[in-house]
Fold this sequence. Notes:
- The protein is mainly alpha-helical.
- A three-stranded antiparallel beta sheet has the order 3-7-6. The chain has a two-stranded antiparallel sheet with strand order 1-2.
- It has helices spanning 46-62, 75-92, 101-104, 115-134, 143-157, 169-186, 192-210, 222-244, 251-263, 269-296, 305-323, 327-334, 353-369, 373-399, 412-436, 445-450, 454-472, 476-486, 494-501, 504-507, 516-532, 535-542, 550-557, 561-576, 595-602, 604-610, 631-634, 651-656, 661-679; strands at residues 7-8, 11-12, 547-549, 579-580, 593-594, 615-619, 625-630.
- The chain contains 29 helices and seven strands.
Amino acid sequence: SSSLTTRTSGTMTTMEDTGVGYNDEEDKDANGGNDGHGGNDPVVDEEARTTSRTTTSNSNKASANKTSELILPNDHVRQFVSFLHKRIDESLTHNSSGGNFEQQGRDGERRGTNPVYEIGNLYEKSFPVISERYFKNANWPKKEAVLEFLEKEREEEGKTLTGEETDDEIFLALYEELYFRHVYSRSASPSIEERVESWKAYCRLFDCVLKRSKTSGLVLPNVWLWDMVDEFIYQFQSFCQFRGKLQAKSEEEIERLKELKDDGDVWQKEKVETYLEALQNKKKEEAEEREKEVESDEKAKRSNIVDTLGYFAIVGLARVQCLSGEYELSLKTFDAMPDVLHGGGGSLHARIPGCHVSVNYHVGFAYFMLNRYKDAAKLFNRGISHVERLQMNLRRREAGGGGGKSTGAHSPGGRIELLRKKSEQMLSLLSIAVSMSCGSGSTSSGGVMRSLDDHTRSILREKYGDKMAKMNNGEVDVFADLFAFACPKFITTNEIIQSTGSGEYAADPSLSYNQEAYKKQLAVFMEEVQQRAPLPKLKSYLRLYTTIPVQKLAQMMEVTEDELKKNLEVMQEKSSNVIEYRREYCKSLLDGVEVSKLNASSGGAAAHWNTFDALDIALDEDGKTIKVFDHYTQSQQPQEKEQTSFSTPSSASMASSPTKDAEIFTRHIHRLSKLMKELK
């Protein structure tokens, strides 16, 4: 058949319809390898489809005596399975030492007849196209059918497994990973048994990896290895949501879920974390072995699977901890990746768009929930900018005739669409971070905004300007709505289930509890919002005065004098306890320095700009008048402290400290410039 791929002089030629074995030069995406957008994408018009159907039909008639062709549905599926199996088998049984396996595994970076590159094409090109065409409303053939096909194919070719050849265990484990990923992408809600089988499939795959002899010499594209970890966490999240939605389930389904819970194995948080930790530990063991080999000048055949999966397992474990509300533990786990905050384009996660965005989102969200808004803003800004660049590259390729628009969940266009949604979530969280930082000393909203790229600031003002204005006016419902949209799907742990089971859920076991984890995190967030909501309005009034009576300010704020004093205390507390990550001072992502102390020690112009937005207040001895001054004024010379309800410089020292006319003029010019920018 002319539409089928053949091997000629060790070089793969292109299969018209599916792109199996495509082996031409293409642009690289941010992964550092093929992403399926460039070159001659396997996009087929109606004429090609007709030709393919006719040719395939004739081929089937001519080879009706081959029983292997009757097992899988069509030539394209058969060839995909056959080629993928052969390329994996070649990689496993390759006789060379493998050289620099990290270079070989860099998403098919080496081309020609390298099986790594061909596996990358099969994974990134052929699998999405075949899935979109033949399995849009159906599942791929099951593992048993694939195994039967391979055995029949070997019989027809007169081949038998020798001692040097491997069995099909690792190939079938990889195929099952693709199979169940397609099941989850095609179906809105897989069945209970499909979820159980997908868990068992991942267990088999990771067990093969942990038994290094099973994968010795095998090199897979880094993007596939990331997708394994990403899909593993996604399916775990999906199961946690599924088991908590009990109201729409039958009695048989509820009973089956109880059995799984009692079993304590399928998609349990502890089991998921155990596998991720085991992959990390295996990575460390292999690194130690490599060091010994360097010392002894010995080189063994290496696989990139353990090393790369172990790296991505760090992201997966930290992500699970973040989804469980363990934000401090999540940041400590990310410490195992020293290039998280300041890694350049050479870091592994920066070459995989999905991993890079996931790292920025989850580290940023952990900082966000720990009230470290400027640190969170830096991460969100980096993730948003990365997605914007990916979208621009995709539009440029499509406009330049790079194969038309790519569709389907597995396609490059489908991947970037998922990243775009994550970018929208980061924008929502960023708008909250800017509003919540008002009144937080040197990381006030102006300071957070200045830390963003110009393009990100422009998008933020365009899309969320109105909502940010509402949040600055203290409308707490806007905070809740944005948080509901932007937060991750939290995991309902057994601790939450047990705590809810003693109340209304014990009286009616059919009540759903899938939202309990979200409600718990929302309550923590809204408690902080209630404290900070009045601060932007309060700060805007204080900027207009150097002295103001408490009674007058309370009337302007429409609160009682006692409530006003509490708000003033909160503003001072939030301003004085600002923690920020600084690389030169911090060893861990969880570490931070008090910005006020850092600014005081730095002095000079830098201290001026870092503390320009911050305000301090002091109450007179009678407690009826508020005196307002900024940090720039008090940094001009040392001042004594006054024993009032707020820890601020005394009014006597403020009155006795002369301020030059030029300094007053400079401060007002800066304030005018800032107001003009905000009006724009």
